[in-house]
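Tutorial handout. Part one gives the primary structure; part two gives the three-dimensional structure as tokens.
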Amino acid sequence: MIAVLPSLRIVPRRAEERCVSILRWAAVLTIGGGLPSAALAQGYPAKQLGPWTIAASKDGSGCFISRAFDRPGHTTLLLGMDRDGSNHFSVLNENWSIRPQDRLKLTFRLTQGGYPNHQAIGIVADGKQGFVAAFDPKFPISFAGSKALHIDRGDTPVERLPLDGSGAAVAELKRCVAAQHGPAKAEASDDGIPRDPFAQRAKRKGRR
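Part two.
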């Protein structure tokens, strides 16, 4: 078993902002009935790097990496990153009984750092049940530099996932995000107020 370092508390975004973010992502997965499409988006074709798949979101707002694990319940991991710097992390499994919108407190331990008692919300996607969580901007960096991810619910182990190849996958994820031209959120200060709330947003094609 790969040893992980003791949990390192990293200051998250404001709780209410994080809650809104993961609720939005949970709604997309629940209503859509599946993970974001790996089809061509914004000129970026889906790529395979070892066990990792990298693809762009349909609306061009960001990209995601995913990996399936050959284990009981066929666990699926997904890390999405938007152009505004936000991220969304999901883990799904056929055997789990999490219900959509269930609110959970989970501890995530990476080889490089950790997030104790972190908020997650239940989702259903691709015939599996699981959760989605949003993390601070440093999470993808820690994820890329880690060899394993341990997830626990209190004293109960949830998953033990190897992350071999995650460094190359996250590097390609960032290149994918940089190539996107979809909608991005206006830059905001710590109090949630955009620097310029009247800045013109990119218009979607086909709309006036």
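Part three, for discussion. Confidence is low (pLDDT under 50) at residues 1-21, 26-34, 37-41, 203-208. The two ends are 56 Å apart (CA to CA).
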